[in-house]
């Protein structure tokens, strides 16, 4: 979550230009030091407009003296710039990647607005913030979050955005900011920085922000998930919201075309299809059970036991069988007779080994894993049942022969 910086300047301290002007795209500074570290160089300036990773907001990118800046880090009172080439000591010109900076300002300011809306409407506080590459998240301290909470908070946030309110920076001690009505009290000493949204929010923060709420464009809430003791809400602002909305529309349009229906009918058509699929799956399952019963009786008749006390040994390669059908057939065979069953599908390369409980022909899981070693397959299971698959289905018969050799009678 964003936090307020302590503002002080002294020997060796980097002046942070973005504190007072987040819209500074280029700047001039003095290079104090430049040291190689692995394949990168650590550059320290007397002043910088580059924002370092902190408070949930990623670092800026850009160039420094012509060298690409690939990372920026906070090091106590200094800002360390990591470049892909050396930068000479003395004067240097810096340029900020403005597309990235704009995106980060839109997301961060949007987060302040959304967090303030949840406080204003429901007294739900934000406990953390993360600005990701594609989406942002806040973790909310709330007993529950319902769709109406998201709808109302999203609408309130966008109301403030559309009103184009001023976003300003103010400074003061923790006590002065608390007396001014800051949203989150802090216990740090010294002069602190806060970001204030006109007539709506005042929050301690050291990040880069927009000058007016209208520059955020709009905010869209997205995925919501329950965490251990909080709720994580995903959102997007500005150009990300535009890109996300266009992507959602493209996906919905494609789905509607595939379903041969209008966009509003996509959910109802999908619901109908899912219900029909479930009914078909249930009908297919019943047919497979009947087929497995018939095939089991046929196989039992073809594989009599060697003696009244010995189990039947059934080794069979089926031309076409799904993993589910192999499992069903094996289970039917060992349920109807004292048997050891080794089955495989010639079309898919799936394998199923089973034995009736009480038959001591070995551990089916161990036997399958041992047999598969020679055939680059994978699988496993329990003492009485195991399943696996072959990389080459043509090896099904050879695998079952190897598995049979590993049985113990």
| CATH homologous superfamily identity of the largest domain | Threonyl-trna Synthetase, Chain A, domain 2
- Kindly give the count of domains: 3
Unreliable stretches covering 5 or more consecutive residues: none
Query: DSSP strand (E) fraction?
Result: 25-35%
CATH architecture of the largest domain: 2-Layer Sandwich
Number of strands: 20
Mean pLDDT: 93
Approximate shape: elongated
Radius of gyration: 33 Å
Short structural description:
The chain has eight helices and 20 strands. The protein is α+β, with helices and mostly antiparallel strands and 409 residues long.
Report what the structure shows.
This protein is an alpha+beta fold and 409 residues long. The chain has three domains: 15-96, Elongation Factor Tu (Ef-tu), domain 3, CATH 2.40.30.130; 102-257, Threonyl-tRNA Synthetase, Chain A, domain 2, CATH 3.30.980.10; 277-405, Diaminopimelate Epimerase, Chain A, domain 1. Helix content is 34%, strand content 29%. The protein contains eight helices and 20 strands. The protein has a six-stranded antiparallel β-barrel. A five-stranded mixed β-sheet has the order 16-17-18-20-19, sandwiched between helices. Strand 17 (339-345) and strand 18 form a beta hairpin. The longest helix is centred in the C-terminal third of the chain and has 37 residues, at 266-302. The protein is elongated.
Question: Which key features would you list for this structure?
Answer:
409 residues; alpha+beta; Elongation Factor Tu (Ef-tu), domain 3; Threonyl-tRNA Synthetase, Chain A, domain 2; Diaminopimelate Epimerase, Chain A, domain 1; 5-stranded mixed β-sheet; 8 helices; 20 strands
